Amino acid sequence: MNLAIIFGVSEYHNYTPLEACKNDAELVNKIFSKLGKFDAVCFLAGNIKAFEAKQKLTEFVTNHKKEPVNELVFYYSGHGERDDSDFFYVFSDFSEKKKELTTLRNSELDGLIRNLSPSLTVKVIDACYSGSTYIKSEDDIKPTLEKSAKENKLGNLYFLHSSNSQETSLANESFSFFTYSFCRSVADLDGAIRYRDIMAYVADDMSQKGYPKPTFVVQADNTEVFGEIDSEFKNYVKQCLNIMGDDTDEGDDEREDKSETEKEDDFLEAIQKKSKEEFCSEVEAFKNIALVNDLLKREKWPDQILKIFDVEVEMIEHASTIKNSRDIGRWLSQESGLNYFAVPTYDSEIYHEEEYRKIPRKPSRSMGVLGELYSLRESLGLEGESEYKLEKIEKTRKFVDGFEYTAASPYRGVQVIFKPKYASVENYAITIVLIFSRKDLVFFMAREVLPYQSWDGIDRPKCKNWKTKSVLLKKETEIRGYISELISSTSAFISEDIKGKLGNNT
Hints:
The chain is built from 15 helices and 17 strands. By secondary structure, it is of the alpha+beta class. The longest helix is centred in the C-terminal third of the chain and has 27 residues, at 476-502.
């Protein structure tokens, strides 16, 4: 028996809606149905509450756990969240204060799948904003996924994830780019298509288009087949993707017959197109970076926030004033090939480490020539076992202590402080630091509660947990979209925190 679980979450109460995710799930459901491979499908799309999803998932597993399951495919499109220990599938009713109730942990999903004991498990995760992760050194999603699969005894496994731990997934109004590429692969490949073939296609496609790099986890022998693809099925997928017409196999043949001059013209045209669509001039960069501050001004915040707080927006002018800049420097040290206009800075420190040191033998004057022969044998390693002593050795090492910018910009970041008008409410802050290149703008965002240190004094933001989001610096719409989402999620975070501290009075 082959089973499939398909979730596409497009509506969110406290997050930006993701219209494409419903379309993603419906597209995958159509393709899986047409393939004729799956004996049963659990399908939910649109406004999906976490309890509903978990209930449907549990019922689906219970109904099939007594049957031999050859293959299980789990597909998810929607918001994703990360912490140090797990990945979370986020549903429509997501709440920061009720994270366990309003999300599904990847480890919990693996525990449910374990009841089915599938011979092969395939997960295809198109998690928009899945790259929004806390920045810590050597933080990666692969070990998290592999650990969960191992603990739940999922033997043969393919895991296709739309972006790595420090990037976000992208979508247009119709489909998410990763899902589109996944489905496009079965329209462009022929015969018995392996999951490994799909992964290779998606990796090349996303790379050529400059999209976020997908993450793949493989614990199988690379022979497992997604399906037998014929011309009828390929045409059906192309129809679903609206790529009929010029984008046919005949068109491919015509392109192969182009002259060398025509190919060179196409090559130049591709360079010009990418330069125009993705890369910024300094003037454009300054304009869009300045936009961030304008979008965060007091009047942009919801009335509910403005009734409770005085909102103060301050620009960060210098990298030296940024708290916890060390984690940003560490991130930059791992992204050295991406040409950001910022570099990590280093300091050195002395530390001690215990090592075994060989104890030299004391020379004996009475031994004369025999002593010299003994010493010679020892230096040649011909003597017996030597004696060693454990000693503390002083050493020096370099470490990342922050970062510095290598290019000018209107400012380096923005800090928003929420000062309450009422004694029963805490102070809050968000800090945004901007790292950019000719192409990309990366937002480092830290959100926190500021405790009172005295009657009137509050603690300053410490920025302990940075979360990242990368957009194209040239795309004003992407910058506006992220700031809109940030205002929405921050307002929800503050409101939920206040309600939680007021207790039963709300």
